[in-house]
Design a protein that fits this description.
The chain is mainly alpha-helical and 464 residues long. The protein contains 20 helices and four strands.
Length: 464
């Protein structure tokens, strides 16, 4: 086995990983009697909370982005994307109907070249052609709707696994709804859809594109009026495009406001003390403890934190001045890892909820620990969000005892996947396809051999 990114695990594997990480942290006395349900999305509200949230929604016109739970922001983004896809599909359909009508009129004109005259044209002069609109065939309809026909499934290898995979796709807006059902929740055997809010991704991309050489990205003041306008546009659910005309400082302030106003902080408050306790650790011990705590985060928090840390690492990489190919000096942005941790630490690691009493009051020891912990997260984010082969085996051992029927599917999906050691930055680059003939045979036998060795390893550990 090779180390794999955390988000590549299936929903079932991630749930098992959370339980293993919690057990190991409790053994190290880093967390107490903590329930995983407390770390995830909160349950039902009290009557008072419902009334307060209802009055706030009426006052704020149901904000779509700011001041609402992270999973709700992502659900709103998904609903907006589905609406956009429907609009695009309808537009394509209208264009296709228009093209069909145009062809139909051309056929009529071809049959009646004399125009509106009453001259009779002998039958048989023109070949018999249907005078009905010819719409697209059924195959193109299936492609447009994203469906997969039964014939295409039977042509794939490992039909049962592919069908199972097609039927168990996980989407962010479906996960919480399924958790609230009274019946036992069926966890997916596929990776959960990447869950990063649209506002976070667009702000990060804008600064990465236009602002890495801007001095004091997050320290220089912004225009409150322009930031408020951007905030209102996101809250109305509009498709906000951040281009080169937007001020980098305005976008940076917008990102900080979003993180600051989250009712459930990016790192859940239940883990605040545990994260701060790692500040007194050093070296591999500290990184191992931080990694276990990151494994406890809900997928939406984990994915968003990963994207943010990736962005902050890229900003810090351009902190110092450098020389271009022509020898010209390129100014640095002065945003070192320490500076970024000082700015973002209180927004990511929050002890109290926004608006609560003494929310801004943080003693010196806590403030220093928050900065130190976030520094480590920025510096080592690539390693911290990887799952080691040993941890993968622990997951399989646990699933072998609880859900033995899924082990074969998970192993085959794992070893049939194209191996990739590149990070997420290289998304879109494809490994070369295997050569036909012996190469494919050797690869298949290698996969089967490794699959057999892992199954044997599991059986031996359980005493079979």
């Amino acid at each position: 086995m090779q180390p794999v990114p955390l988000h590549s695990l299936s929903e079932l594997e991630r749930a098992s990983l959370q339980e293993i990480a919690l057990y190991q942290l409790q053994e190290k006395l880093l967390v107490g009697d903590l329930s995983l349900a407390k770390v995830g999305p909160k349950g039902s509200k009290s009557i008072r909370q419902k009334l307060e949230s209802f009055s706030k929604e009426k006052k704020d016109c149901s904000p779509q982005t700011f001041g609402i739970p992270l999973f709700q922001v992502i659900a709103n983004d998904c609903a907006y994307k589905q609406l956009q896809d429907t609009v695009k599909k309808n537009r394509r359909l209208c264009l296709e109907v228009e093209a069909t009508v145009t062809r139909f009129r051309a056929q009529r004109q071809k049959r009646s070249p004399m125009g509106r005259s009453c001259v009779l044209v002998p039958c048989g002069v023109f070949p018999e052609e249907p005078l009905s609109p010819t719409f697209l065939n059924s195959s193109s309809w299936r492609q447009r709707r994203g469906a997969m026909s039964v014939d295409s499934i039977t042509d794939l290898s490992d039909n049962t696994s592919k069908l199972l995979e097609a039927l168990q796709l996980s989407h962010p807006h479906e996960l919480d709804a399924r958790r609230n059902l009274g019946k036992k929740k069926m966890l997916s055997l596929n990776p959960i859809t990447w869950q990063v809010p649209r506002i976070v991704d667009r702000c990060c991309k804008h600064i990465e594109t236009h602002g890495l050489q801007t001095v004091g990205i997050f320290r220089v003041g912004s225009s409150k009026k322009r930031v408020q306008q951007l905030r209102e546009e996101f809250d109305r659910g509009l498709d906000v495009f951040l281009d080169e005309h937007q001020s980098v400082h305005d976008v940076a302030a917008l990102l900080k406001e979003f993180l600051r106003d989250m009712p459930d902080s990016l790192i859940p408050r239940e883990l605040y003390a545990a994260f701060l306790s790692t500040a007194s650790m050093e070296g591999p011990v500290q990184l191992a403890a931080l990694q276990l705590m990151l494994f406890l985060l809900p997928p939406c928090h984990s994915d968003t934190l990963h994207r943010l840390l990736q962005f902050l690492s890229e900003v810090a990489r351009h902190a110092e001045s450098s020389r271009g190919p022509d020898g010209q000096e390129i100014p640095g942005n002065k945003m070192t890892v320490s500076n970024l941790a000082t700015i973002f630490g209180p927004n990511i690691l929050q002890k109290e909820k926004p608006g609560e009493k003494d929310v801004g009051a943080m003693n010196f020891e806590d403030s220093t620990a928050v900065i130190l912990v976030l520094q480590r997260l920025i510096e080592h984010y690539q390693t911290l969000f990887m799952v080691s082969p040993e941890m993968q085996r622990d997951i399989l051992r646990r699933l072998f005892q609880t859900d033995p029927d899924v082990i074969d599917y998970l192993l085959r999906r794992k070893f049939n996947a194209v191996p990739s050691t590149k990070s997420e930055d290289s998304t879109g680059e494809h490994a070369p396809s295997p050569l036909p003939g012996r190469t494919h045979t050797l690869e298949s036998s290698s996969v089967s051999s490794e699959l057999y060795s892992n199954v044997s390893f599991l059986n031996l550990d359980v005493g079979i």
